[in-house]
Amino acid sequence: MDVDLRLLRYFVVLAEELHFTRAAQRLYVSQPALSSQIRRLEHRLDLVLFDRSSGGVRLTPAGAAFVPHARAALSEASLGIAAAVAAAATPAEGDTLRIDVQASGLATPRMVIGALRAALPKVALDVTSYGSTSHAERLRSGDLDLALCGARAPSGPDIAEQPVRAEPVGVALPETHLLADSAAVDLGDLAADLHYLPRDGFAPDWNDYVLTACAAAGFTPRRHPSSTDGTDTALELVRSGECIALSLVSTSPPPGCVIRPLAKHPAPYRWVLRWPVRTPMHPHITQARRAISNLSMAHSWLKG
């Protein structure tokens, strides 16, 4: 015989209170509605569960015998729901989540990957750093599950995203540079320097950011001829005095190189997490998004 769990809950609460008004208040229903539902349960079971009289409400022998079984049914249902939720939230052994991060050596990508590993300990993270140009196509084709990149990277209506960090931008200078000891540097004072930018096909969103900031400062940067994509290699070029480079302020410079904030505070560089809009969604994207959202909130990353 099938009995609605809601009716069982109404019965158990009334059995505990033995008072229709108090039971109705606990259940957030009206007293007439509770009375109607109890009568419905009794009709369903073909049993009288309560004696009702002007003196109050009391359990019949049948009602008293039914109480522990009704409680057990509610408890079992609650445990079943909890088990289902836990199973959905617990990664299965052997699962893989593929994520490409722009400039994996930078602080923000490292912290994001660390947060994902902590939140998904049973999931194998396949981390690559091929550049933001290919992110959208790889997400669409199913070759990639997540991408961490700048907000200006190529995207589309079939790609969803959430903000991760609004990160301040400074400038990396060799410690021998005339402005290396400045508390803050006016970007316009760097118009005569060679500027490092990654190759156009690797991080067009970062290059667009740099070119926009320089244009706002009144100049078009002269590019260093190097085509390297690695942050470490770029900072080595800066350290050697070959060029300067706009840089996220969280970057750790090597010896011989310093990072100074920009005096006029250009717009922050905005990191986003992206994933494909499709059904069914990868089973761990929701957990990954939650982990990164918690990371952002913990460090106040979105206040910029």
Automatic annotation (TrEMBL):
GO terms for cellular component: protein-DNA complex. This is LysR family transcriptional regulator. The keyword DNA-binding applies. It comes from Kribbella capetownensis. The lineage of its organism: Bacteria, Bacillati, Actinomycetota, Actinomycetes, Propionibacteriales. Pfam families: HTH_1, LysR_substrate. Gene3D superfamilies: Periplasmic binding protein-like II, Winged helix-like DNA-binding domain superfamily/Winged helix DNA-binding domain. SUPFAM superfamilies: Periplasmic binding protein-like II, Winged helix' DNA-binding domain. Signal peptide: none annotated. GO terms for molecular function: DNA binding; DNA-binding transcription factor activity.
